[in-house]
Amino acid sequence: MEIKKAIILVAGYEPNLSPYTDQMHQCMFKIGNETVLEKSLSHLSNCGIEKVVLIVGHKYEVIKEKIGDKYKNIDIKYIINEKYQSTNVLYSLFLAKEETNEPFLLMDGDMIVEEDFIAEMIKYPQENVMAVDFSDQNKENIVVSKILNNSKIVEIGKHIKKLDDENFARFLGISKFSKDFANKLLTQIQIFINENKLKTIYEDAINELLKTETVNIFNSRKYNWFEIDTITEFEKAKKIFGDTENLKAKAFEFGADDAYIILPQELVFDDRVILQCFNCKNFGVKHTCPPHIMDVDFEKMIKKYKKGLLVLVKFDSSIDFAKARLESTNKLHKILLQLEKVAFSQDNHFTTSFIGGSCKLCPNGCAEGSCRNTAMSRIPLESTGVDVVETLKKFGIELKFPAKDLIYRVGLLLIG
Ligand code: SF4
What is the pTM of this model? Predict the structure, then answer.
């Protein structure tokens, strides 16, 4: 199913963000050089979307003046919800009924997501998909979905409160629908409108359709997303989306198998991790490992950075484990040094990185006395006290031990 169109809902007024939203819709808030909406449009353009329908209302003239009728490769169409103060997103979507005659993405305009999130969702094999997050907090006023077999949504709405169970997840306001599903959805929306349920959300109409239709989940756990419903969330989003997105793309270009943007404050630290160094056969040998590394509060220092990028490489170790150990560490090490260079050129003068596993740059092992190459050697992430296993769980990755057939190496780039 090819997707060339997106419908973005940016009509409503958000009183929680007043006085900022008195002047503009929150999609006009700036992150770096772009507004939130421009960022979404850039991502959509890079993902092959050719037409975007913006359902506008509150302060729509600000949006129109900024975005115009064409943004990058995207044709922009505006539909005005004049009744945005007395209606909700269901009515906004109803106004776009002429635009639902082909598969499309449906997005809440106050969501900020990574480009990979959108790209992956477009590629997702199922036709009708809604993005959810299983790890989200118990917040008020969110749309929760009940999920069957970790794949199919069986119920959705703000009425569902139970989030402390693996069968419940938060809906993130981004969906992909086929033409056929959209037709049925619009028919259901029409029924609600005929009943004058104008304050209803479109998820309520979807909830009705779930009795007969299949909607799958898109588990967005490994991507960063933010909903601008509070200034704190917006400040967090501003920190995480900036040059980290560019560095993430570079990480893949340099050969990483995965990369995750993280706030250093979200890394999991545990003193017991450093105890493992004492059990290592190289304890006391490596110049960049305990007990030779400087005696500083790594947690405090690392958390001073504004942004981080976890970089992963995976190596098949089923045939030659020793070779895979060596090559995986060195590959990751090289990627991180390249990323440091890029970050430095982006004016991040404090940038540094931590490798995965002990430094193996010298083919015959560490030199006696002191390190041969302090400019290039780096400290293992584990020896700073970061619990890599628990940290990766935040991105849905479960590392299993012992690692027999597959070695994961995880490093961290810090910037800001
Ligand atoms: S650069 Fe060489 S001497 Fe320095 S820590 Fe790495 S392997 Fe050891």
Answer: 0.81
